[in-house]
Specification:
about 240 residues; alpha/beta; 6-stranded mixed β-sheet; about 25% helix; globular
């Protein structure tokens, strides 16, 4: 049973250290699974590790976390080759797509080579929940700030643009993030931009933001817009529901 309408959960969180394993699914991932509407069987969870170079050690930790959570985990590895010639059917067979963090610039380039943009759009429209953390949050938007090119943040604007907004991640934990978002919005490089502290997520139904959520106390979400009269960026904190 797919989600009731096209759904994206864009986050700066998701995993937590495990008690007897390297990782466990945190509340944001469990929320993504709930959004898929699966009942009566184990949810199907697709981990996409392109931004981190499809590291097999990470895959092993995610597989173990999925086993602990009672979830069937699959992987969309693009290095050294995709797992199938029919990527659309492979992605459509999943309930949740979770895109891991890393280099969003490299992720978008590799996805383009393999034609994954249209595949993810089809899956989104079909009710597969699209989600992820950091690079896996920015990718669904028009663009955002990234350290893909080095420690000084730059802005990418070639995201999949399923969501016609900018996106800021790690808003509270990396000191360059807030000022770089404000600079990009003020200059018109990014449009209206939604941002998350570590541990927070943004739930979109279709292209509308319906709520901000958090897996830990104190994590917030924000919207930054351009004031045309002063050519400055204005920030507003959003109401955030604790999961």
């Amino acid at each position: 049973m797919p989600a009731e309408q096209p759904t994206i959960l864009a986050t700066s969180g998701g995993y937590r250290p495990g008690h007897r394993s390297a990782l466990e699914f945190g509340k944001l991932i469990h929320f993504a699974l709930d959004l898929s509407g699966v009942e009566g069987r184990r949810p199907r969870f697709l981990h996409v590790g392109t931004a981190g170079g499809d590291q097999r050690a990470t895959n092993a930790n995610v597989a173990e976390a999925g086993a602990i959570a009672g979830v069937d985990v699959s992987f969309l590895n693009l290095f050294t080759m995709p797992p199938t010639d029919d990527l659309e059917s492979y992605v459509l067979s999943q309930d949740v797509v979770w895109v891991g963090g890393g280099s969003v610039a490299n992720l978008l380039a590799v996805w383009d080579v393999h034609g994954l943009g249209p595949v993810f759009r089809t899956a989104w429209e079909a009710g597969v929940v699209l989600s992820g953390v950091s690079a896996g949050s920015i990718c669904w938007h028009l663009g955002g700030t990234t350290d893909s090119f080095g420690p000084d943040l730059r802005v990418v604007t070639n995201g999949l643009a399923l969501l016609p907004y900018g996106n800021g991640v790690h808003y509270d934990s990396e000191e360059q993030r807030r000022p770089k978002v404000h600079e990009a919005v003020a200059a018109g490089v990014l449009p209206k931009t939604y941002c998350t502290d570590d541990g927070a997520g943004l739930l979109y139904r279709g292209t509308e933001l319906v709520e901000a959520v958090a897996e830990r106390q104190g994590s917030g979400a924000y919207v930054v817009v351009r004031d045309d009269s002063s050519a400055t960026a204005q920030e507003e904190k959003l109401d955030t529901r604790l999961l």
